[in-house]
Automatic annotation (TrEMBL):
Main location: cytoplasm
Keyword rRNA-binding among UniProt keywords: no
GO molecular function: FAD binding; UDP-N-acetylmuramate dehydrogenase activity
Keyword Magnesium: no
Organism for this UniProt entry: Candidatus Kerfeldbacteria bacterium CG08_land_8_20_14_0_20_43_14
Associated pathway: Cell wall biogenesis; peptidoglycan biosynthesis
Enzyme class at the top of the EC tree: oxidoreductase
Name of the molecule in the record: UDP-N-acetylenolpyruvoylglucosamine reductase
Domain FAD-binding PCMH-type: 29-195
GO cellular component: cytosol
Role: Cell wall formation.
The reaction(s) this protein catalyses: UDP-N-acetyl-alpha-D-muramate + NADP(+) = UDP-N-acetyl-3-O-(1-carboxyvinyl)-alpha-D-glucosamine + NADPH + H(+)
Cofactor: FAD
Subcellular localization(s) per the UniProt record: Cytoplasm
């Protein structure tokens, strides 16, 4: 398909790339090329791009910080809109307004610098703010989405809309945006609480200690599976004796069973096969059906 499908306005400012390798935009470091690639957090540009893609019959999807996602080896035969920004503003004594493309780490730093509490549990979670909201990223019984007052998003028809917290459909590692990458979060407002410095520092220390056992300095997507009810996916994988299991270039972490590592030459196919193997082993040994937390992109 020719780039002529895109408006002269978009092409003129050079924001559309062709055949952009998505492995360069994911923490797993796997994934083939996107036919077309746009990096922005500008809602007007995103609206325009979606409308043009719809008119051309071109698939599109959002990509944030690239964690918690597995991209096909064949890539994505359509338009990837990478949400990228660094804006995070204090708009009231206890409210933050931030772009979806801002890193979650910056959101947390800003909250702490403004003596606001609530997000300490999320320290160490990689990825973007928008992606964290979509998947309700969290730990220790908390999720980012519980602090959202409202958010702006562009829907699959290219219309900018507002979603209140009551419309988010929040549950464990889920919001209504989890499996609808064509509905693109633009920004969100968080409501936090005034911090008691000593208590906040204690929560920060606890969060860092809980993440100390997670693999560091490796290519991975974060936790692969959701925790089953009253169980730990990582502990089940450990008890099944699967740590260190390798298929191709994909390996189950020796440090934590719920992490799959790209040892350097993994393909998405290796990771898919390893995920299926883990699910089969846990089902056979414990009668538990694991459910992926990671999102798939570009698979038929």
């Amino acid at each position: 398909m020719s780039t002529k499908i895109f408006s002269p306005e978009l092409e003129a400012i050079g924001i559309i790339k062709k055949d952009e390798v998505l492995a360069n935009h994911t923490t797993f470091k796997v994934g083939g090329p996107a036919a077309y690639f746009l990096e922005t957090n500008d809602s007007e540009i995103i609206q325009k791009a979606i409308r043009i893609a719809n008119k051309a019959g071109l698939k599109f999807a959002a990509l944030g910080g690239g964690s918690n996602v597995l991209v096909s080896d064949q890539g994505f035969n359509g338009l990837i809109i990478k949400i990228s920004s660094s804006r995070c503003d204090l708009i009231d004594t206890n409210k933050l307004d931030a772009d979806a493309g801002t890193s979650l780490a910056k959101i947390i730093r800003t909250a702490l610098s403004q003596n606001l509490t609530g997000l300490e549990f999320a320290i160490g979670i990689p990825g973007s703010f928008g992606g964290a909201i979509a998947g309700n990223a969290g730990t220790s019984g908390h999720g980012i989405a519980e602090y959202v007052e409202s958010l702006k998003y562009v829907d699959k028809t290219g219309v900018l809309k507002i979603c209140d917290k009551s419309q988010l459909d929040v549950s464990y590692r889920y919001t209504r945006f989890k499996y609808t990458p064509e509905d693109i979060i633009i920004s969100a407002i968080l409501i936090l609480a005034p911090a008691q410095p000593i208590e906040s520092q204690k929560l920060v220390k606890e969060a860092m200690e809980k993440r100390s056992w997670q693999p560091k300095g490796v290519w991975c997507a974060g936790c692969i599976f959701k925790n089953p009810a009253n169980k730990s996916a990582g502990k089940l994988i450990d008890e099944a004796g699967l740590k260190g299991k390798t298929i191709g270039g994909a390996k189950i972490s020796e440090e934590h069973g719920n992490f799959i590592i790209n040892t350097g030459k993994a393909k998405a196919e290796d990771i898919i096969i390893l995920i299926s193997f883990i699910k089969q082993q846990i089902r056979d040994q414990f009668g538990v059906q694991l459910e992926e937390e990671v999102r798939y992109l570009g698979f038929n």
